[in-house]
């Protein structure tokens, strides 16, 4: 009798395993079909989808710049995704009590001439892109100067704020120039060294580095570690991580209805936090990145490639149809 009961449990276990395997196989077939015509010698991409520590899908297509197979270890410039490391560095310093998100610019840059405007713009305004600054206001000469490290050039535009700080979202990459300068001032380290010591090293992101233009180079292997670090609070305490994932201002919106929290794009049109998603995307031929993370469901969807990732919307639809996400 005992042997018969054990046999029943064994058969049930095998059936459940096969069911799970079958579901994973169906998802794989759906995604593979999207890229079925992608040739091995064409610019490539790498895709990884996980839930918790369970791999739902992983595959590579095409070749890298050296005509080698594009795989998990292929390193590319991930563009503005690198800005999330600057944001987390600020939150780490806030957690350490070395700065406050309520601090204004004048505290760190007393040399600013327009002190009235500098007092209005707070650290959290820069993080959430509600400072009133915008990239389009910069001249080409000043833009080059800022990218060369001349942060004071930004302050010449405080008399021309596009909006009152804290009232409207407008993504501005120049915010990160100011934030990186604050990191250096507060930590007494070069901001890149602070990020290496406090994010890359504890996370084990050994392939990730800054290039000469201060852009982040990384790969799927390290981006999976980044998700793991967020899930298990390896770079900051869990309260800080939650702040980075869910803290946002619902009254602040833009024409395209996107919302930005302190570190990420945020899907503001949700009905519950269980459906929340933080994400970053850059669809450009030659340098494309997609990073979606659903904290409550612990699902991550990462894709990097040297081709446009516009077909990623089809993958998202498959995930929705399989009821993995909403």
How would you sum up this structure, described in words?
This protein is of the alpha+beta class. It has a domain at 76-269: 3-Layer(aba) Sandwich (Beta-lactamase), CATH 3.40.710.10. The chain is built from eleven helices and ten strands. The strands form two sheets. A seven-stranded antiparallel β-sheet has the order 2-1-10-9-8-7-6, with helices on both faces. Strands 3-5-4 form a three-stranded antiparallel β-sheet. Strand 4 and strand 5 form a beta hairpin.
Question: What key attributes describe this structure?
Answer:
alpha+beta, Beta-lactamase, seven-stranded antiparallel sheet, 11 helices, 10 strands, 14% strand, globular
CATH topology of one domain: Beta-lactamase
CATH class of one domain: Alpha Beta
CATH superfamily of one domain: DD-peptidase/beta-lactamase superfamily
Estimate what percentage of residues fall within beta strands.
Answer: 5-15%
In short:
With 326 residues, the chain is of the alpha+beta class. The chain is built from 11 helices and 10 strands.
List the SSEs and their pairings.
Layout: H1 2-34, E1 45-51, E2 54-61, E3 76-77, H2 83-95, H3 105-108, H4 115-120, H5 123-128, H6 140-147, H7 174-187, H8 191-203, E4 209-210, E5 216-218, H9 220-231, H10 238-246, E6 259-260, E7 265-266, E8 278-282, E9 288-294, E10 299-305, H11 312-321
Antiparallel strand pairs: 1-2, 1-10, 3-5, 4-5, 6-7, 7-8, 8-9, 9-10
């Amino acid at each position: 009798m005992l042997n018969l009961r054990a046999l029943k449990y064994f058969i049930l276990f095998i059936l459940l395993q096969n069911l799970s395997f079958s579901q994973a196989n169906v998802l794989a077939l759906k995604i593979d079909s999207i890229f079925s015509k992608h040739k091995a010698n064409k610019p490539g991409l790498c895709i990884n989808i996980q839930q918790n520590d369970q791999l739902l899908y992983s595959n590579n297509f095409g070749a890298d710049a050296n005509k080698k197979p594009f795989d998990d270890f292929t390193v590319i410039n991930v563009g503005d995704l690198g800005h999330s490391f600057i944001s987390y560095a600020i939150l780490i310093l806030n957690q350490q009590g070395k700065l406050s998100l309520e601090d204004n610019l004048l505290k760190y840059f007393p040399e600013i001439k327009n002190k009235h405007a500098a007092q209005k713009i707070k650290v959290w305004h820069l993080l959430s892109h509600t400072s009133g600054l915008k990239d389009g206001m910069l001249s080409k000469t000043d833009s080059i100067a800022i990218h060369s490290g001349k942060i004071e050039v930004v302050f010449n535009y405080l008399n021309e704020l596009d909006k009152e700080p804290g009232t409207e979202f407008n993504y501005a990459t120049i915010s990160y120039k100011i934030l990186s300068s604050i990191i250096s001032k507060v930590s007494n380290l070069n901001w890149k060294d602070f990020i290496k010591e406090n994010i890359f090293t504890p996370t084990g992101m050994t392939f990730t580095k800054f290039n000469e233009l201060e852009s982040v180079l990384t790969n799927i292997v390290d981006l999976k570690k980044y998700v793991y670090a967020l899930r298990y609070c390896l770079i900051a305490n869990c309260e800080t991580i939650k702040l980075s994932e869910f803290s946002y201002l619902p009254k602040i919106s833009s024409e395209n209805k996107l919302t930005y929290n302190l570190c990420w794009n945020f899907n503001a049109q949700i009905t519950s936090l269980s459906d929340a998603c933080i994400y970053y995307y850059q669809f450009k031929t030659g340098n494309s990145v997609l990073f979606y993370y659903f904290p409550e469901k612990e699902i991550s969807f990462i894709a990097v490639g040297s081709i446009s990732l516009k077909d990623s919307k089809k993958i998202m639809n498959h995930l929705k149809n399989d009821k993995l996400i909403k």
